[in-house]
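User: Just a sanity check before I run the rest of the batch. Below are the structure tokens for the first item. I only need the designed sequence back.
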């Protein structure tokens, strides 16, 4: 089961690169009724895989569950998708992990080359010319309010698609989906600003 939200790194503010990625990372770190440890414990107990990631144009919450655990797994899936609480202590922990990862890429030639290539092709004013995971400076500057604002702005049913594959019946899945996501409120979602890549002004040899 995939909940595909049609917003990702493209929606990051220019000076807050990595916001979408940080939001996705925080979805499984606590809800209004479960702590991060409780979420991990329940996923382990049910034998399910529950993850959240973000790309340039989408953010995804994914669930892989045995049919026998479908009801309990769906309740957990809906909770992390609809009721994240972004607890401050867990946000700081996740931030430190991501900052460490950003520091480590300084020594990775291919990653440095990829970033330089994207900046050269798209320019730093275009979203694709900026690092999806952010920089050390941007990651350190993203506040909890900004994380909450990104989630509230873009994680909406009219900006999402639920994909289900497995040994299930379409009518049964639709009924269950309506039960768990039926109260999700629709709101206007801002369109992503369009801009043309500036590209390199001249070749360098």
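Assistant: Here's the designed sequence for the first item:
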């Amino acid at each position: 089961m995939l909940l595909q939200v049609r917003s990702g790194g493209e929606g990051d503010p220019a000076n807050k690169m990595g916001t979408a990625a940080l939001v996705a990372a925080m979805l499984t770190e606590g809800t209004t009724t479960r702590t991060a440890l409780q979420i991990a414990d329940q996923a382990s107990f049910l034998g399910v895989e529950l993850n959240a990631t973000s790309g340039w144009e989408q953010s995804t919450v994914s669930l892989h569950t045995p049919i026998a655990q479908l009801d309990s797994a769906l309740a957990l899936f809906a909770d992390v998708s609809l009721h994240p609480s972004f607890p401050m202590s867990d946000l700081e922990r996740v931030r430190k992990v991501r900052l460490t990862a950003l520091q480590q890429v300084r020594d990775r030639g291919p990653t440095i080359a990829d970033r330089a290539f994207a900046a050269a092709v798209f320019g730093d004013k275009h979203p694709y010319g900026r690092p999806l995971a952010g920089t050390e400076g941007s990651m350190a500057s993203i506040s909890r309010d900004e994380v909450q604002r990104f989630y509230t702005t873009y994680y909406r049913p009219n900006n999402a698609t639920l994909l289900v594959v497995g040994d299930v019946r379409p009518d049964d899945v639709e009924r269950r989906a309506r039960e768990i996501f039926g109260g999700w409120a629709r709101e206007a979602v801002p369109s992503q600003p369009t801009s043309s890549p500036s590209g390199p002004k001249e070749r360098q040899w």
